[in-house]
Amino acid sequence: MNEKFLPLLATIAVFVAIFVIGGLLYNNFMSTQVLGDILADNAFIITAAFGTTFVILSGGIDLSIGSMIGFVGVVIANLDLAGWHPLLAAALMLGFGFLFGALQGLIIDICDIQPFIVTLAGLFLLRGACFMINLDSVPIQNGFVGWFSGLGIPLPGGGVLRSSAIVMLLALAGGIVIAHFTRFGANVYAIGGDRTSATLMGVPVRRTTVGIYALGGFYSALGGVIYAFYTSSGYPLAGSGAELTAIASVVLGGTMLTGGVGMVAGTLFGGMILGLIATIIIFNGTLNGAWIMIVSGVLLFVFIVLQRSLVGSLRMRGAA
Amino acid sequence: MAQDAPQGRRFESPRASFDASGPKKPGDGDEVGGTCLEQTIVTARIEMLGVSKAFPGVRALDGVDFRVEAGEVHALMGENGAGKSTLIKIMTGAVQGDAGEIRLDGQTVRIGSTGDAQALGIGTVYQEVNLVPTMSVTKNMTLLRQPKRFGLIDWREARRRARQRLERLNIASQIDVERPLGSYSVAVQQLVAIARALEDDTRVLVLDEPTASLDANETALLFGIVRDLKARGIAIVFITHFIDQVYAIADRISVLRNGRRVGSAPTSELPPLQLIPMMLGRELETTERRAASESSAIHGEPILVAEGVGRRRVMAPFDLTLRPGEVVGLSGLLGSGRTEVAKLVFGAIKRDSGKLTIAGAEVKSASPARSLHLGVAYCPEDRKAEGLFAELSVRENIILGLQTKRGWLRRLSFDAQQALAEAMIEALGIATPDADKPVGQLSGGNQQKVVLARALTSDPRILILDEPTRGIDVGAHAEIVALIRKLCAEGLALLVASSELDELVAVSDRIAVLRDRRKVGEIEERAIDRQTIIDTIAGART
């Protein structure tokens, strides 16, 4: 058994454990119906988190995700008003997300500024742009959106794998291929593991950095498209704080914030864990919603401590 | 010293005869083996002619000629700032020279990037293992050249290639290529780095301090592989600070100093006694020994006693004593362990053996904070990285050490800080318009004085100075030396690590001599002079 799968297995084990706990607490909890709902409800944020996984793997951070989700929704809704087909608008926004991310990556690398600040600027910029366009929620009228969000593959046991979840799983497949089966992906791991070494080994750091943030922008725009189609609207406040949830999903998924270690597949389960916790607490009905954040916080904390010790044991052996 | 003459002549000749002899086919160097008689007529594997490089304010290389034969291990020696790393960087494409020519097997080549160098068959293994510890061995070995199948990376084939590369060094059986590189010892990581750098067509392999963090067994393993590569006709450039290793493995030695090549000779013709003066050079000014009367302040019991203090892989156990009013010098080549001794005594490096007694009390677990409380102050070698906060003012920098000693609860009032800073500026003659100027804006000499001032505000009994005059001008140099003498006349015990022999000769009452991370001798006051230190470093006297 390869030790690189350990964090992923830990994440899956936690996911299963929480699912079982939910099943013990409530009847009907352990069903494909609940699973399908969690997948569909969290698809937008998990999709965006796939992009964040690349950014964090490279040792960076992307805070512009939530604003991108909101901005994409608002623009699609307004283009819908102008008579655009939603798919065309979505394609436009995916391109925009890619370019916006690339621009952030370019600034980060050329000016050698911390990604935190650059993407924080991106966060303000895009959120501000949302409010410039609209102050209120704008419904998307085109019948395609309603038809699309109604699509789904029935699961055994009465659940449905909704279209948003399907798009998310396709995005996951793409992410896995990019991360593990392309040179770009290998370069991301190299830069995150040891930037100096990667440079000396000849990794094209600038091109890769631009690519990483472009990918991050693309995935968050895709998250925005999913959200807009799922809710059939564009709302300027949509996705507020989503960047932090995405980062939490990535970390719970076993990716190290220091970069170089982690897997895209882990992020799916990390995001699902957060979704499960929310669902369990909502199922209870009497518990305050604040408990969602408290439990998520505790879990995140435990995970980071676990990771720290895991990496500690890895580094100790090689240290001089 | 007459070191320049004979080697210089030997080296000028190949250039003159080079064109007459005509370029030979690549690959025929294998028969040469590096015998020095033939080398004036054969084509070198790699030859650098008149290479110069200037960085802003520094002339790093000045018309350096350097040639390495096929199947030769060529040691490149020199102290800090000699130009070794610049020369290597030019050879490996990391830096472009301002002037000069590089010939590989007789062909003039342009090495514009590290990629160019790799394509030409010049492999490099850097001092620190320059691989990614979090990635698997396979990923490290195949990065940027992964085999592809249907446009995607074929990991099965990648693993096979990684094993194949390791097999060239006969180490494939010891390494699981799936595991993260960081889970292996530094020695194995180093071997993986070499395996990565080696291609089928590698002609030149540069090993930049590959043994810096290896122990004796690991070094032996590495040398076995180096000999193997040598037998295959690869030209090996070997950079190290360990004199013994040079004599163990190198066929030839070239010495750089201040950006010029000062000599080059077969190892057998260049014993350490000649090599070391070549590396150290000689300052023009003659230094006077401190008058014996000045050192009469030495009295009483030792204030610091180190018995068998050391740390594995860092510094072999050593003994050292220090009395009030005494200056003990630490001498040795770059990398010999000067800084390590200073840091072990101060507690900045934790010792794993031995006993350290300061002022009669045994120090069980040494740490910088503990040492400060015991009255030990340390001025580090690298002012910018370890000694000063460039953005903070002169006053804040001076106060820092004292604040550490007092603890953060008992904060000094602003007036007290100001008074103290001004007293220090006055006492040490720090040239600054006022105490609030950021330290980063002062000259090197004045920055060093601020470091000293900070150490002195805590009123130490023992002061450790690591390279107190590095990078400062001649005038400031003299002032620092005068200051050291004055401090010790006041009864302070000083431990001074320095790469400049003349400086140590000028200030020391005793000199501990280090070589290859080991204390090899101690020179008493009467015997201190340049030659004795060189002899001791070279191992001619102990």
Rg of chain A (C-alpha, Å): 20 Å
CATH architectural type of chain A: Orthogonal Bundle
Q: Considering residues with a beta carbon less than 8 A from a beta carbon on another chain, report the largest interface and each chain's count.
A: A-B, 30 and 32 residues
Shape verdict of chain A: globular
Structural class by secondary-structure content of chain B: alpha/beta
Mean pLDDT of chain A: 91
The CATH C-level name of the largest domain in chain B is: Alpha Beta
Number of strands of chain B: 22
Largest sheet, spatial ordering of strands of chain B: 6-9-10-3-11-12
The CA-CA distance between the termini of chain A, in Å, is 27 Å
**CATH domain class name of chain A:** Mainly Alpha
**What spatial order of strands do you see in the largest sheet of chain A?**
1-4
**Count of separate structural domains of chain A:** 1
Order of helices and strands of chain A: HHHHHEHEEHHHHEHHH
CA(first)-CA(last) distance of chain B: 22 Å
CATH architecture of the largest domain in chain B: 3-Layer(aba) Sandwich
Instruction: Give the oligomeric state of the chains in this entry, treating copies of one chain as homo and distinct chains as hetero.
Output: heterodimer
Total beta-strand segments of chain A: 4
Instruction: State the helix count of chain B.
Output: 18
Q: Biggest sheet of chain A, in brief?
A: 2 strands, antiparallel
Helix coverage percent of residues of chain B?
25-40%
Pfam families (chain A): BPD_transp_2 (PF02653)
InterPro entries (chain A): ABC_transp_permease
Protein name (chain A): Monosaccharide ABC transporter membrane protein (CUT2 family)
Membrane topology (chain A): Multi-pass membrane protein
